[in-house]
Automatic annotation (TrEMBL):
Domain of life according to the entry: Bacteria
GO MF terms held by the record: catalytic activity
Gene3D superfamilies in UniProt: 2-enoyl-CoA Hydratase, Chain A, domain 1, Lyase 2-enoyl-coa Hydratase, Chain A, domain 2
Natural source organism: Rhodococcus jostii
UniProt protein name: Enoyl-CoA hydratase
Similarity comment text for this entry: Belongs to the enoyl-CoA hydratase/isomerase family.
A matching Pfam family: ECH_1
Length: 260
């Protein structure tokens, strides 16, 4: 089956739920609708005993490049609905009772980092990178990123990523403990399939309880992070720095903050 929402493909085959962001012309940047469609897919199959593993990935050259700031006019800027949809999606992936593979097939930026790290086993192509790009447009990380990143790599490195908005190449992300593995680009599809099959053929309930135990121990602040990020982001979305950041992004020039 396929989602009714353009930009998200959902299939179930041989025990595997595959949720694919499919907006390649926008580098899989997401809107409120596409985020809700991803969350709907995980919610719908959470109680399906036939599903033994899930894969979240992207089509084309990117995994997900964050919220769509320059797409169709109808998409508009991020709003409270977008933030809520991002939080709902990360929470749905976290709560899914089967292992979720985050198959990062290209850049993961903005909320794309949140989606990738909400997964249980995040793996990436060698050419991929991770970028918390929020401060470049005068915003703060959301989608649970302030908890998800810090839980993996600690406060110092999380703050460096969040404040400086610098790219973290996949190999460095692996060395830092942000993700589980990296594969050469030309071996990635086969590697994802092999890992998917290994999990699908494994002890589902043992995986379920293990996933919940590790996540409960390490993501104790996730729900609070959703609330803090929502409050902060809604304030930032009304500020002059955000307007300048988006204008600079669309005009492909450096932003000049603090002039409002």
């Amino acid at each position: 089956m396929t989602s009714d929402i353009p930009g998200v493909d959902t299939t179930v085959d041989d025990g595997v739920l595959r949720v694919t962001l499919n907006r390649p012309t926008r580098m899989n940047a997401v809107t409120t609708e596409t985020l809700d469609a991803v969350a709907d897919s995980f919610d719908k199959y959470a109680g399906d005993a036939a599903v033994r593993v899930a894969v979240l990935t992207g089509t084309g050259r990117a995994f997900c490049t964050g919220a769509d700031l320059g797409g169709k006019k109808t998409s508009g800027p991020p709003s409270s609905a977008t933030i809520d949809a991002a939080n709902r999606t990360a929470a749905a992936i976290r709560a899914f009772p089967r292992p979720v593979i985050g198959a990062v097939n290209g850049p993961a930026a903005g909320v794309g980092v949140s989606l990738a790290l909400a997964c249980d086993l995040t793996i990436a192509t060698e050419s991929s990178y991770f970028l918390l790009a929020f401060t470049k447009v005068g915003l703060m990380p959301d989608g649970g990123a302030t908890a998800l990143v810090a839980a993996s790599i600690g406060r110092a490195r999380a703050l460096k990523l969040a404040l400086l908005a610098e790219r973290l190449p996949a190999r460095e992300a692996l060395a830092a403990g942000l993700i589980a593995d990296v594969f050469p680009d030309n071996e990635f599809a086969a590697s994802v399939d092999a890992l998917t099959r290994r999990l699908a053929d494994g002890p589902s309930e043992a995986f379920h309880l293990t996933k919940d135990a590790v996540n409960d121990a390490t993501l104790t602040e996730l729900d609070n992070a959703f609330d803090r990020e929502r409050t902060g982001q809604l304030e930032l979305l009304t500020a002059d720095d955000y307007k300048e950041g988006v204008a600079a992004f669309l005009e492909k020039r450096p932003a000049v903050f603090g002039r409002g």
